[in-house]
Amino acid sequence: MGPGMDASIALVAIAPFVAALLAPLVQRAARPFAGWVLALVPAGLFLLLLTMVEPVISTGAISARIGWIPTYGLDLSFVVDGLSLTFALTISGIGTLIVLYSGAYLKGHPHLGRFFAFLLAFMGAMLGLVLADNMLALFMFWELTSVTSFLLIGFDHTRQASRRGAIQALVITNIGGMGLLVGAILVHQLTGVWDMSALGDEIRASGLYGLVLAAFLAAAFTKSAQVPFHFWLPNAMEAPTPVSAFLHSATMVQGGVYLLARTTPWLGDTQVWTLILVCVGGATLLWGAIGALRQTDLKQMLAQSTIASLGLSVLLIGLGTEAAIAAMLLYFVAHALYKAGLFMVAGAIDHEAGTRDITVLGGLADSMPVTFIAAALASLTMIGLPLTLGYFAKEEMYLGLVTGQWPDIAVLAVLLAGNAMLAGLAMLVLVKPFLGPVLPTPKSAHEAPIAMLVGPIVLGAASIVAGVMPDWLGHTLLEPGTLAILRETVSSHLSLAINPASVLLWLSVATWVLGYLVYLQAAAVRTLARRFEAALGWTADTVFDVVMFGLIRFSGAVTRLLHHGRLEVYLVTVFAALALALILPVLMLGGYDVLLPTAELGDWSAKLSWPDLQLYEWGIIALALVGLGAVLLAPNRLVAIVALGIQGTAVALIFLLLGAPDIAFTQFMVEILSVVILALVMTRLRLDERDHRQLEDLARDGTLALVCGAGVSLFLMVVLSGTLDTRLSDLFAATSVPIAHGHNIVNVILVDYRGFDTLGEISVVMAAGIAVMALLRRGPKRPVPPAPTSRRSQKAAS
Amino acid sequence: MNTVIFRTITPLIVAIMLVFSVYVCLRGHNEPGGGFIGGLIAASAIAILGMATGAEAARRALRLDPLAIAGFGVFIAGLSGLLSLFTGSPFMTSIWLYLELGQTTLPLSTPLVFDIGVYLVVFGTIATIALALEGEGEEDL
């Protein structure tokens, strides 16, 4: 494909992020119409994606490639095929309606601009996720959806429940994200490619198949809220309703379903794949459906039913037959349409009537007729009546399973039970609030504003339109979609004709009848479901809390263990480690042997002589010894510090005499400054003037000091006894002037040869300065505790 | 410690130390010295000023927050390394420029800028610590 197509595919993934950046400004400028203005972005993307439908049908897939990190051979590669186009169209289409809806739902909210920014960024992440072909790009967008959904779920951040829901969603989906990264890297290690479209049978043939599968399944199951990771989804309902409508219909949670569909060609179609997906999906379907019937809050009912629908999709992908994959695609679109619509309806009811509890709502059809029509359209699709998209989805589900073999019959039974419960739920959602006697509501109910009606009506109408055009549906959705997932051409056989001799029809009828029974016995079912849940006691939700609190307590304990705040112990640890580091390696490598007198030397002690030093050199050594003695005998701490300075000055003089003026210079300055700073610190710490130590402390500190000193001396002697490798210093000496234009080799090394090291060092120096500031500034805010009498000097081991 | 003699002579000492620190920093490429030592000398000067006049007065005399000076030092040190990227050489390749000024030649280079960065970091950080400690000491005593 030409550069024009490349650019437009990249535009789809990037435009929402740009729009997100501008959203707060747009919101400020176009206050009442911000939703309408911002909805133009996803609407434009939707139209742009529509233009790709024809090329995809004719060519199967369009790919685009943009250089990303050429050093590592990484490209941002995108692929638009039947699968990703279906998802992208659904995301951008529903996204348009959600943006419109939010503008009205959150009208006058002080942070509406921020909300739009989060929403658009989330949509961009989601579009990138479904379009990405490169697994690292996929991972990046995957994590972006986690982060942006965290912001959306926790939008109402002053509420504790909202924050908890957001953190839970982030933690659970990020654990899966790690799995995705591990899986991607494993696949790359095994095959050498990052692009998913380039993968074939290599992974299935590899011995690491199980590990790769586990990694990808962890990602998909956490994102798509499969049992036992399902609990974050209902808690994410703390988000504003438009967010729930978007996250739990076409996006976020469908990410896992998408990933499974995307990996099917190179990871699926094995026994273990089918077994795991069918079992987990089936369990999730039943668990979600029962959970939904337990609720009376409209939003919670829909949330739990989303879990059920996700389980259904996973189950279908697990089956992996042509019919099952076709059903999955149809069901994805049908579910996105009706679930987004119903969430918006629930939001409208909440917004206008003031409650979402179906037991106190009734007869709203008169006051909210348009909302009622929208709800009816969505519910009919959910039930799966003929002439709706949901009907085809259900037919296709059952189609592959009427084989008469017992595993298929078992799966069929699970599907039938799940679908029946969902159908019953749809009837509850439609009938309870809208029909029957009018019940008093907290607010006097009236029709919602137009921006809140467009969404559900358009979505409801879309599922009807799609439901009466089976040929078009088969040609544009089913055939390219199944080609992308199964990598083989499948011809659609969707038809509106109703065949009374077909067992499929009777399965559908059974679903509706069972659904109606569930509806009739709703109260009894609810009591039963609640009793069941109460009997379980511990849920995954409580486990999450226990684990999280355990983690926090554990890290607190580790911190207290390592970071106890006792300076004395820190210093003892540091100097003990220093002593070990100096002595152990040399000892173990037999390095001290060179220091021992050799056998042929005979009486070596007789041959020892005083070194031949000048008088002033003896003077300097005497000065150092005087300094040392003064430190040991000092009557108080201040004298000890100054005495240490004397000793350091003597060392600096030795450097000066041995021809290292730079080091001597620096040593002088460091000695002066350390005496000044230590003296200042002393006054800050309010220590006793004198340094009282117990005898055993004195022994410990003294030993440590002697061992460290001996360690340094022996280490230096060992080093000097060998021949020094002078290649580097020769090189520096030879090249300092010609290539670095400097005569001071020390400085040339610091700023030129080893400039990068110095850059790191000065950054550390600066960071240390900031840390000292932070420590000192903390002081005045709290009263300084009186100094304990036995506090030891920090100069203990030096 | 805070005697009249000390207070009187401090401004003079500080001025000399600061000038000397710049001298030491600039000559460092060919003779003993350099940004690190220069920074230490300058920081000692500020520490002395802080002792004589109080931390607040020393801070006012500096005009800039010493920590900001340190940050600026890291910034220009990093920037001096980035310059070489424009010539197509690896990060931190030195660039030299010889300016002919009448009788003499003035060598300018990116290592010089880098060394000035080091000077500012060392000066800023040590001055921050010293002044903070001196300031706290005043409040306490």
Structure explained in plain terms:
- The complex is a heterodimer of chains A (798) and B (141).
- In chain A, strand 1 (61-69) and strand 2 form a beta hairpin.
- The longest helix of chain A is centred in the N-terminal third of the chain and has 32 residues, at 160-191.
- Chain A has a two-stranded antiparallel sheet with strand order 1-2.
- Chain A has a domain at 3-546.
- Chain A has 798 residues and is mostly helical.
- Chain A contains 34 helices and two strands.
- The relative contact order of chain B is 0.18.
- Chain B has one domain.
- In chain B, helix 3 (55-62) packs antiparallel against helix 5 (110-140) and helix 4 (66-82) packs antiparallel against helix 5 (110-140).
- In chain B, strands 1-2 form a two-stranded antiparallel ribbon.
- In chain B, strand 1 (96-101) and strand 2 (104-109) form a beta hairpin.
- At the A-B interface, helix 30, helix 33 and helix 34 of A face helix 2, helix 4 and helix 5 of B.
> How many structural domains in the coordinates of chain B?
1
Assembly category: heterodimer
Portion of residues in helices of chain A? over 70%
Count of DSSP strands of chain B: 2
Kindly name the structural category of chain B: mainly alpha
Helix content of chain B: over 70%
**Strands ordered across the widest β-sheet of chain B:** 1-2
Topology summary:
The complex is a heterodimer of chains A (798) and B (141).
Chain A: H1 3-29, H2 34-38, H3 40-50, H4 53-59, E1 61-69, E2 74-81, H5 82-105, H6 112-131, H7 135-153, H8 160-191, H9 202-205, H10 209-223, H11 232-235, H12 241-247, H13 254-267, H14 271-294, H15 298-319, H16 322-353, H17 364-367, H18 369-383, H19 389-399, H20 406-434, H21 450-467, H22 470-486, H23 503-520, H24 522-536, H25 540-562, H26 567-588, H27 604-607, H28 615-633, H29 637-657, H30 661-685, H31 695-721, H32 727-740, H33 745-753, H34 755-781
Antiparallel strand pairs in A: 1-2
Helix pairs in contact in A: 1-3, 1-6, 3-5, 4-22, 5-6, 5-12, 5-16, 5-21, 5-22, 6-7, 7-8, 8-10, 10-13, 12-16, 13-15, 14-15, 14-20, 14-24, 15-16, 15-20, 16-18, 16-19, 16-21, 16-22, 18-20, 18-21, 19-21, 19-23, 20-23, 26-31, 28-29, 29-30, 32-33, 33-34
Chain B: H1 4-27, H2 35-53, H3 55-62, H4 66-82, E1 96-101, E2 104-109, H5 110-140
Antiparallel strand pairs in B: 1-2
Helix pairs in contact in B: 1-2, 2-3, 2-5, 3-5, 4-5
